[in-house]
Fold this protein.
Amino acid sequence: TFDFARKIDELGLRVRFTKIIPEEGKFEIQVYEKPQQAKDWLVFKSIEFPYINLYWVGTIVMVIGFIISIFRRKKELTT
């Protein structure tokens, strides 16, 4: 028996028998390359920290305080 979906590993090809046309005495085959392997993926793991919002609130408060101190220092130096 002939394996119609036979792989030709050395060449990286596949052969598939598709149809017979008896009126014309012909048959049709498909020869195509194996699909290339997909590229490697890089997977990140996301971890949810329960109190991360407090960290961001603290950061924002410190930035606002720093900006206010810059304006006050500038105001003190100009007067």
The mean pLDDT is 83. Helices lie at 52-78. The radius of gyration is 35 Å. Residues 39 and 79 are 65 Å apart (CA to CA).
